[in-house]
Design a protein that fits this description.
Elements: E1 11-15, H1 20-31, E2 35-40, H2 46-54, E3 61-64, H3 70-84, E4 89-92, H4 114-142, E5 145-150, H5 163-187, E6 191-198, H6 207-210, H7 219-226, H8 240-247, E7 258-261
Parallel strand pairs: 1-2, 1-4, 2-3, 4-5, 5-6, 6-7
This protein binds nicotinamide-adenine-dinucleotide.
């Protein structure tokens, strides 16, 4: 493999590593020789996640934590520093929609529970900001480090229904740009911060919105595919190459970028 794109030996912390996209990224990074530190939500997810990664190589390890619990994330960062002496990459994948912050066609804005709005903002925005807060301190001390956040198509145009999720992901995009400039200006060019904006990938949490129980397309997914020039959903492995690029030396002059991986969704007007 071209050296420029290598992530071999890099210590890569990945949140949401037991999920659909986070799991795919963790397996890919392990298969490319990265030392993956898998952060999962529930304790029972640690062992199977680490087992699957171990089979791919390297010396993976895992921790269970809530990404909004900064004390827990900080103590994990301390542990990683004791074990590895450095962290090269942080990928913030933990996130997702919260059903109560979604407004269905027969509902209106006032049906949305404000506590669910707070939950979806917390998980997606604070759940990205807090790990960045912890690990940029490590990166600033080291003088290098790379962050990859996960935004969404919901951050580009306001998608129907997902009011809270869209606002939170737009926050992730804006915060990514802000943190990129803050790090480069104050701590040097070797700390880079970017994000991926995935299009539509079928995972556990959006399956019911995109596919009927018999596997046929829902009305919503018919609209999604009509606005996707490639006319298909993404395969869960299709974030991996873009993530590797942004975390490798090949992207040494790339920071503050939100890279769509969306089959053309964000570039297409639909007409
Ligand atoms: N699937 C898509 O089409 C799509 C599109 C755009 C963006 N995204 C984003 O990609 C990311 C992954 O999505 P996915 O489809 O793989 O979903 P997923 O539900 O499979 O993965 C999300 C993971 O986050 C973990 N998580 C949830 N709350 C947590 C918390 N408080 N602390 C720690 N971990 C927590 C879950 O346990 C889960 O493993 C999310 O940020 C999502 O918003 C997904």
């Amino acid at each position: 493999m071209n050296e420029m794109f290598s992530i071999q030996g890099k210590v890569a912390v990945i949140t949401g590593a037991a999920g659909a996209l986070g799991g795919s990224l963790a397996r890919h990074f392990a298969s490319q020789g990265a030392e993956v530190v898998a952060l999962v939500h529930r304790p029972e997810q640690v062992e199977p996640t680490v087992e699957a990664l171990r089979a791919l190589g390297g010396n993976p390890c895992g921790y269970a934590c809530n990404v909004m619990d900064t004390d827990a994330v900080r103590s994990i960062a301390d542990d990683i520093m004791k074990k590895w002496g450095r962290v090269d990459i942080l990928i913030n994948v933990a996130g997702g929609n919260v059903p109560g912050a979604t407004i269905m066609p027969d509902q209106n804005f006032w049906d949305m529970k404000l506590e669910d709005w707070v939950k979806v903002m917390d998980l997606n925005l604070n759940g990205t900001v807090y790990p960045c807060h912890v690990f940029t301190e490590v990166f600033a001390r080291q003088g290098y480090g790379c962050i990859l956040n996960i935004s969404s198509m919901a951050a580009y145009d306001a998608l129907s229904r997902v009011a809270g999720y869209g606002a939170a992901k737009e926050g992730v995009s804006n915060f990514t740009r802000w943190l990129a400039q803050e790090m480069a200006i104050k701590y040097g060019e070797k700390i880079r911060v970017n994000a991926l904006a995935p299009g539509f990938f079928i995972g556990k949490q959006n399956r019911a919105a995109l596919l009927n129980p018999d596997g046929s397309l829902t009305d919503r997914s018919v609209k999604v595919l009509a606005k996707t020039p490639m006319r298909r959903f993404g395969d869960l492995t299709e974030l991996n190459g873009a993530a590797q690029f942004l975390c490798s030396d090949a992207a040494s002059f790339v920071t503050g970028v939100i890279l769509p991986v969306d089959g053309g969704f964000s570039s297409f007007s639909g007409i």
